[in-house]
Amino acid sequence: MRNATLAPLATTLTVQALVSMAVITVPVLAPEAASETGVSASYAGIFIALVYGASMASSLVSGPLVQRFGAIRISQACLVACAIGLASVAAGTLPLFIVSALLLGAGYGPVTPASSHILAKTAPPERMALIFSLKQTGVPIGGALAGALVPTLVLWSGWRMAALWVACACLVTAILTQPMRKALDADRNPRKPLAVASLAGPLRYTLGNPDLRRLALCSLCFAALQLCLMTFLVTYLMLDTGLSLVSAGMMLMLAQVGGAIARVAWGAVSDRWGRPTRVLGGMALAMGAAAVATAGFSAQWPNALIAVVCVAFGATAVGWNGVYLAQVARLAPPGKAGDATGGALAFTYAGVLFGPPLFTLLVGWGAGYAAAYVLLAVPSVVCGLVLLWHGHAAGQRAPGVTGKQ
Predict the structure, then answer these.
(1) Where is the signal peptide (predicted)?
(2) Would you say residue 77 has pLDDT above 80?
């Protein structure tokens, strides 16, 4: 892999991992913080909802900001916002917890559009899905770092200092990215207007492009199912199959590992086959099938078979992001990858924001965890059929350019 590709990939991957780690740090700290602050650890769910609500809003305005200030400068600003958000957590008051969630969301949302802007310029077209998928492994890497390091930091220095240590890591990363700015932000336009109309442009751009609109709406369904897998799997396994907390946690870990590995594998398959829309369609059908299989878990299932299904569920419901983001960038005109990604991610974050609450409502209304997984699998299967049909139809209409489908 050429250095012209490797350096931007390493930079965007590192930034993605740090902002992801920053977001996950707060739920990891929640049990320790609760005993001292009096804020229930169960509020972590509301905290994450606020984070992703702010992410949805900030991703929409990220395109014009990237064009005016540069993708590296915006990435640095995101890291600083996350650092201030974690410092707010360390203050230990409820109002500052809310401020923290909004700052972390403001820092998390623009990172992906900014990285898409960079990678769309630097990634070889024949390896675009693979490069984007490698970058997206920063999300599970950040979660793994938070899970592995933050508890140790808490034991070593307390939960407040643990938050501040992660904040320092974000600031150090922002400084270390500075040498890349001259080269990667050379295309910025300091005169780019930041009027309200221009900031809303990414959403209009996505809605106005049929292919982008279709992908964005499908990503809403995929993200909803992904978050429901990660949020409810442990509870479901404990209640419906009788697994212990440790065993259920291991199943979730296997799903995450499967998703991280599959992100790279699906990217390679998409590049090699040259039909990303059809790859996404196939993954959508597979994640629907895995969700239905998950709904069939019972105490009679051997742990090994449950593990296989969890890995398959993770490989599809977590593994789709890189191929999706690469296709969004591929469909965007030159220099507009940030706009297209920001608009599309607003729909993706909407799935993250509304999927788990819908799942909770279904369970609360008496449907049960198994039925809720089946019901949320239906939209993904429909999306899969739609993507496969459009990918096939586009290939028939223009056989010479099916590499984009």
Answers:
(1) none
(2) yes
3 state SS for the chain: CCHHHHHHHHHHHHHHHHHHHHHHHHHHHHHHHHHHHCCCHHHHHHHHHHHHHHHHHHHHCHHHHHHHHCHHHHHHHHHHHHHHHHHHHHHCCHHHHHHHHHHHHHHHCCHHHHHHHHHHHHCCHHHHHHHHHHHHCHHHHHHHHHHHHHHHHHHHHCHHHHHHHHHHHHHHHHHHCHHHHHHHCCCCCCCCCCCHHHHCHHHHHHHHCHHHHHHHHHHHHHHHHHHHHHHHHHHHHHHHHCCCHHHHHHHHHHHHHHHHHHHHHHHHHHHHHCCHHHHHHHHHHHHHHHHHHHHCCCCCCCHHHHHHHHHHHHHHHCCCHHHHHHHHHHHCCCCCHHHHHHHHHHHHHHHHHHHHHHHHHHHHCCCHHHHHHHHHHHHHHHHHHHHHHHHHHHHHHCHHHHHHC
What are 246-270's pLDDT values in tens digits? 788 788 878 888 888 898 899 888 8
pLDDT at 198: 55
Per the structure, the complete domain to which residue 321 belongs is given by: 200-405
CA distance 181 to 185: 5
Residues 163 and 16 in one domain: yes
Whether residue 237 is found in the same domain as residue 341 = yes
Cβ atoms within 10 Å of 77's Cβ, excluding its own: 18
Are 169 and 87 spatial neighbours (Cβ–Cβ below 8 Å)?
no
Domain closes at, from 128, 146, 178: 178
The angle formed by the CA atoms of residues 175, 26 and 156, to the nearest 5 degrees, is 80
Question: According to the model, what pLDDT value does residue 49 have?
Answer: 79
Domain-embedded: residue 165: yes
Q: Are residues 129 and 208 in the same domain?
A: no
User: What's the N-to-C CA distance of the chain in angstroms?
Assistant: 25
If DSSP states are collapsed to H, E and C, what string results for 217-233?
Answer: HHHHHHHHHHHHHHHHH
User: For a pLDDT cut of 90, what percent of the chain falls above it?
Assistant: 38
The CATH number given to whatever domain includes residue 115 is 1.20.1250.20
247 and 161, same structural domain? no
